[in-house]
UniProtKB/TrEMBL annotation:
One of its GO terms (cellular component) is membrane. This is Nodulin-like domain-containing protein. The chain crosses the membrane at residues 31-52, 72-91, 98-118, 130-147, 195-218, 252-272, 284-303, 447-466, 486-506, 518-537, 543-568, 580-602, 622-644. The keyword Oxidoreductase does not apply. Residues 394-424 are annotated as: Disordered. InterPro entries: MFS, MFS_trans_sf, Nodulin-like. GO terms for molecular function: transmembrane transporter activity. It is a multi-pass membrane protein. It holds the Pfam family Nodulin-like.
Length: 657
């Protein structure tokens, strides 16, 4: 059986396809297999943010935690989930495999510990100590940054021509992951088991399987595995002025459609769960549909077209590897051949729109003879840029000196070819990719402006996500329901997913209009300014509205921030700066959970006579952290605008003397 996929006729004219069987391995299918494993990791990462599901169990059995004690556990978890400086340095130095392996070990260990703590709630096997609870929960949360960095940054580089779609699908699923895990809990665990331990057993088993697959298969592109149309810009896209390539639009459209169906499914399901009492059959259908939804992303693998240009490159790379195996050690000629293969492909894709195709054999012969043509000299310049990690995602080589990008010289224009559109002075995407050290950058205001914007957005996430059950209990004290509590966790995740979807959809449109992705930064604090006060005004049955608004802002923040980092910093400099922003998330629980939410909640609970119960009734229990967090976001919104103005005016994070 052959697989025929719909490919745009204009693309087929330049890049002919070839038929494949359903299970035949191709370079394109291998990359989309990696993408699907990244989605599994996103669901796993989302499970780290379901604290609201099991925090009510901390007030039962032998635990009987106060709100302050619960906040200690959640704060330790949040702090460690944001403590990602080791993650950034590990990723920059060792790559995704080591990063994902560390995350998997941490995550599995954490969930196994939580399982043994809650296995017997009256006589906990590992004691009912807050310290023990915080330790194992913290390990599971510490893995979150390893999962995100190891999967999202890897696929942003592996699918550099489709970065908007990566954010749209993978980053959205990371936000939707908590909602999907919540649906699985409602379907298979809430009424089936009396305790929460079986749920933790599911989490550590899933983490072990998904993490192992990620360690084995998630890799960055190499000269041998680069794929035209995915991480090498194709000529057809370049000829029409950039934007999203058409070569792999079909599988990404399939993934986007599945994602939209998933968001709609979770949204409708959570609303039904909010107002309808679920039967056992309804729960089973919800669980089965959730599992099938996650598995359906594998259809992206089987709908991807296979192109001759990538098959030919794969064969040439395979021949190079065979030569190395026969000779034992790679010769200079063999190494040059592989390098020339990648170089010629880059040149071919850059010049194909001008009907200039370089002969690979000629390039190899010339390099072996030690005579370099003008075209080859430019190729070596491009290779150096690739090796330094300074190739712009849209194909332009960005400058990484301490000054703004210089004007093109005569050496940059071979055979009188016009300068590429990305390099023109009027293009705001011709950015200076910052390659300064973290120590240099933290001594300038640009990084701190971005840091405070993240602090405002992520503080709202801390207040709402880690205290969702307490917020709901305070505002619906006499009608508290575990099912509805799970619904609010789910609706928050859906909203976060919607925000990331919008960012992913807007990214290619902003690129076509030559607008930087940073223009979306103010949306998160603005949504928080609207959503946070709504918790103080909404009746209990309408709480899904503020949960949705704040979740939407969080989705905008997470979707935008990672794209801002990859658009402003050189590839080898992204991990550590992205991790530095996480210190904003580390500070937020110390202020909003430990110093505000927990003490205020317990104070008013004791005044109301709820001593030792960890409960509180009324808006007064949550007013202080909501008001303070709103004020922080009021400050963050204009700072986001200031960041946009400075980076667009200087075309990047550039420091003038």
């Amino acid at each position: 059986m052959t697989l025929n996929t719909g490919v745009n006729a204009a693309v087929r004219a330049v890049y002919p396809t070839y038929p494949t069987t359903l299970l035949q391995r191709t370079l394109e299918k291998a990359w989309f297999c990696q993408f699907c494993i990244g989605i599994l990791i996103c669901v796993n990462n989302g499970a780290c943010f379901t604290f609201g599901i099991f925090s009510p169990y901390m007030k039962r059995g032998a635990f009987r935690y106060t709100q302050s004690q619960i906040d200690v556990v959640s704060t330790v978890g949040v702090l460690l989930s944001y403590f990602s400086m080791p993650t950034g340095f590990l990723f920059d130095r060792r790559g995704p495999a080591a990063t994902l392996l560390a995350g998997t070990i941490l995550n599995v260990t954490g969930w196994v510990g939580m399982y043994f703590i809650f296995k017997d709630m009256e006589h906990p096997l590992l004691s009912n100590s807050v310290v023990v609870m915080a330790f194992f929960f913290g390990l599971s949360q510490f893995s979150a940054s390893f999962y995100e960095t190891g999967s999202v940054l890897t696929n942003l580089k592996s699918f550099s021509c489709y970065q908007g779609r990566v954010i749209l699908i993978q980053k959205t699923f990371m936000g939707l992951g908590s909602s999907l895990v919540a649906q699985i809990y409602v379907a298979f665990f809430e009424k089936t088991f009396s305790g929460i331990a079986p749920f933790f057993a599911f989490l550590f088993l899933y983490s072990a399987v998904a993490g192992t697959l990620a360690v084995l298969y998630l890799r960055l592109p190499t000269p041998e595995t680069r794929c035209v149309g995915l991480n090498v810009e194709d000529a057809e896209t370049k000829a029409r002025g950039g934007g999203e390539p058409r070569m792999f639009r079909t599988p990404f459209n399939v993934g986007t459609a599945i994602l939209c169906v998933g968001v709609a499914f979770v949204l409708v399901t959570t609303l039904v769960e909010n107002f309808v009492t679920l039967t056992a059959a309804m729960r089973a259908w919800i669980g089965a549909a959730t599992v099938l939804l996650c598995m359906s992303f594998t259809s992206m693998i089987f709908t991807t077209p296979s192109y001759e240009v990538n098959r030919q490159r794969g064969e040439r790379a395979g021949a190079g590897r065979e030569a190395v195996e026969l000779d034992g050690m790679p010769s200079r000629a063999t190494t040059t051949t592989v390098t020339a293969d990648w170089t010629a492909t880059e040149l071919e894709e850059g010049d194909r729109s001008q009907c200039v195709v370089e002969d690979l054999a000629l390039c190899t012969e010339t390099s072996t003879a030690g005579v370099a043509s003008p075209v080859q000299l430019k190729s070596f310049d491009n290779d150096t840029a690739v090796a330094k990690g300074t190739v712009h995602p849209h194909g332009a080589v960005a400058h990484t000196s301490g000054s703004p990008p210089p004007s093109p010289t005569a050496a940059d224009v071979v055979n009188n070819a016009p300068a590429s559109d990305e390099e023109r002075p009027d293009n705001p995407f011709a950015l200076h990719l910052n390659d300064e050290s973290l120590w240099v950058n933290v001594r300038h205001r640009e990084v701190w402006l971005l840091w405070f914007v993240c602090f405002g957005a992520w503080s709202a996430m801390t207040v709402v996500s880690s205290n969702s059950s307490q917020i709901y209990q305070a505002l619906a004290y006499d009608s508290f329901s575990l099912t509805v509590n799970t619904v609010f966790v789910s609706i928050y995740g859906v909203a976060s997913a919607v925000g990331r979807i919008i960012v992913g959809c807007l990214h290619p449109r902003l690129a076509r209009h030559r607008m930087p992705i940073s223009v979306l930064l103010p949306l998160a604090p603005l949504l928080n300014i609207v959503g946070l006060p709504m918790f103080l005004l909404s009746p209990s049955r309408m709480l899904f509205i503020p949960f949705f608004v704040v979740g939407l802002g969080v989705g905008f923040s997470w979707g935008t921030t990672v794209l801002v980092i990859t658009s402003l910093f050189a590839d080898h400099n992204c991990g550590k700066h992205y991790s530095f922003l996480y210190t904003a998330g580390m500070l937020s629980p110390l202020i909003f959970n430990m110093a505000l939410f927990g003490p205020v909640y317990d104070h008013y609970g004791e005044r109301q006579g709820h001593v030792g119960g960890g409960s509180c009734e009324g808006v007064v229990c949550i007013a202080a952290p909501m008001i303070v967090c709103t004020a922080v976001n009021v400050i963050a919104a204009p700072l986001a605008y200031m960041f946009i103005k400075r980076t667009t005016a200087r075309r990047g994070i550039v420091y003038t003397a």
